[in-house]
Structures are given as C-alpha cells and as structure tokens.
Backbone:
C-alpha cells in the first residue's frame, strides 16, 4: 500500500449508513469491508447534502420538454438546478481533496452510473439514464476511475477498477511533484508491462509520446500522458494479454535461471493461459526469480515493474481462475 492513503469517494448508503429515502441503507460487503481496508473513503450522499432529509419523498429522472429533470415524485418539485450546482461544487472539492476513484450506488437518480430509469410521459421508463450527481462528477473529472457496486461483483471489472484507482494515485502523485522529462521516462518504464496487459496499441503510443516528450511543453505532456494512460487501463486485461506479458517477462530471465526452472515457469504460464491456475501463481514464481537474481542487469528492468505489484494482495484480485 502506498505511503499516502488513497482516497475514494463513495455513495454513503453503500457503507451501511441509513441515508436512503426510506431510511434504509444498501451496504455492500466488498466495498465496505475489503475495499474499505485499503482506501480512505470519502462518503457522499448528494440527496442528504442538498437538504432533502431522511426519510424523504422519492425522486426520479423525468424526461420533459425542458430536457431531463430530477423531480420529486409526489410534489413534482424540480431539483435539477440545485443538484447540478451542488455536484459542481462537490466535484471541485473532491478534486482538491485528491480522490483517486469513486464507487457509486447503482440505479439511483442521483448516484447511478448507467441504466438508470428515465420516466417519460407514459409507458414504462427507459433504462438508459445516468444519475444527475454521477453525470456531473464524471463530466468534471473525466479521468477519475468510477464504478458501481453492482458491476464490482464481476471479478474482472473489480480488478480493473482497483488497478485504475491505484494507477490514478501514482500518476496524480507523480505529476503533483516537480518532475523532468527523465523522471517521466523512469516512471513510465516501471508502468510498461501493466499498460501492455491492457492495450497493445496504447502501450506503443505511450512509448512514442514519452520518447518525443522533450519537444512538448511539460503541461501538455502531462495531460496527454495521463489521458492516454488512464484510457488504456480502461480496457480489460484478458488472459491472452496477461499471457503475452508473462512470456515477455520470462524472456528477460532466460539466461539467468536453470533450464528446469525455465520449464517450470513456462509450464505455469501455460496453465494460467488454459485457466487451470490463477494469475497470482505465475506472478509469484516470476517474483521469486526476480528476487533471487536481484541486481543482475536484465532482472533490474523487471524489478521495477508495477505489473508485479499493482494493488494490495489483501484484495486477492488475482486469485481467481
Ligand atoms: S444512492 Fe446516493 S443519494 Fe441515494 S442514498 Fe445512496 S448516497 Fe444518498
């Protein structure tokens, strides 16, 4: 875990606090327990914050001739402008606080990230909306890793989200301090295999960007790098891509380890490819060999690879087959 705590915004009801319109909560065990042990949550309940109280009348997204509005179901009161202004202020606050991710409550007209019900004049609601708070947050912080608790039940989306949160943190920390082009070259070197596991083209493009980075103004380089990096990580790292990275890394060890060890490593990588063992198995073996040959030249390159250690082991994100 990095020295500085990682802050993640979260819909308050997911932590078990009774802030929902009906006085209940929507505690999510993975979010509240496992993730909560690795990050510092910044709980936000937009509806309570704009003064709606608990319990309160339910609200919903309504399609009107004035566009999409957030309205009180019983009284018809229009809360759109109030929520939008609040969301703008809150997003600025969260940015200043240095949040590196956000977990939203699904289906909520305020917090839902996707497929939120939008009511029209008649007929069943269309499930194609985004909560008004979530929309503003994502517009104002486009590189922020954002997910919903429902989608985090999916192991691949979960690993992807956590990886992006920790990557966002490293990038933010790096660019917040004084840096020179050479520092970015070193930083990027350590991130290479992680990017490669997500997106081969982005890996090549980032390499080119860093190589010609000296010709760019530092602000422009920083912006381009962060956009390209965070966009690359959104692509899910498949078993095929992980296998490529693992084989690539094993290549660096080929003249250093005995032929039996080489065969064992290749075998374990192949077992991972075939879905027989989880990713943690070849990674652990690779780390063992890297540790055993610490300081040797080709191994030095592997030692600094974030891919071998991208997020806390306690989350066990690489332990599934
Ligand atoms: S979904 Fe959002 S607005 Fe609704 S109770 Fe949870 S935190 Fe509050």
Residues:
């Amino acid at each position: 875990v990095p020295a500085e705590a990682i802050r993640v915004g979260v819909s308050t009801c997911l932590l078990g606090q009774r802030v929902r319109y009906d006085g209940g909560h929507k505690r999510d065990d993975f979010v509240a327990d496992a993730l909560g042990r690795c990050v510092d949550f910044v709980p936000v309940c937009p509806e309570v914050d704009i003064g709606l109280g608990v319990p309160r009348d339910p609200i919903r997204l309504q399609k009107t001739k004035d566009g999409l509005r957030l309205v009180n179901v019983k009284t018809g009161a229009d809360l759109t402008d109030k929520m939008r202004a609040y969301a703008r202020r809150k997003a600025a606050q969260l940015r200043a606080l240095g949040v590196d991710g956000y977990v939203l409550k699904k289906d909520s007209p305020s917090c839902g990230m996707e497929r939120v019900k939008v009511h029209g004049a008649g007929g069943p609601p269309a499930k194609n909306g985004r909560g008004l708070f979530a929309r503003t947050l994502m517009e104002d912080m486009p590189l922020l890793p954002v997910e919903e608790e429902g989608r985090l039940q999916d192991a691949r989306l979960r690993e992807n989200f956590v990886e992006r949160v920790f990557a966002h943190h490293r990038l933010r920390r790096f660019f917040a301090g004084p840096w020179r082009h050479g520092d970015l070259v070193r930083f990027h070197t350590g991130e290479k295999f992680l990017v490669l596991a997500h997106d081969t083209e982005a890996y090549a493009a980032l390499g080119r960007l860093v190589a010609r980075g000296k010709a760019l103004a530092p602000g422009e380089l920083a912006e381009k790098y962060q956009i390209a990096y965070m966009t690359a990580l959104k692509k899910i790292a498949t078993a095929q891509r992980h296998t490529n990275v693992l084989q690539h890394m094993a290549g660096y060890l080929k003249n250093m380890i005995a032929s039996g060890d080489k065969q064992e490593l290749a075998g374990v990588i192949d077992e991972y490819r075939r879905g027989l063992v989880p990713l943690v198995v070849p990674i652990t073996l690779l780390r063992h060999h890297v540790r055993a040959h610490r300081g040797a030249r080709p191994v030095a390159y592997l030692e600094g690879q974030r891919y071998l250690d991208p997020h806390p082991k306690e989350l066990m994100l690489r332990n599934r087959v």
Observations:
- The longest strand covers residues 59-64.
- The radius of gyration is 23 Å.
- The longest helix spans residues 155-176.
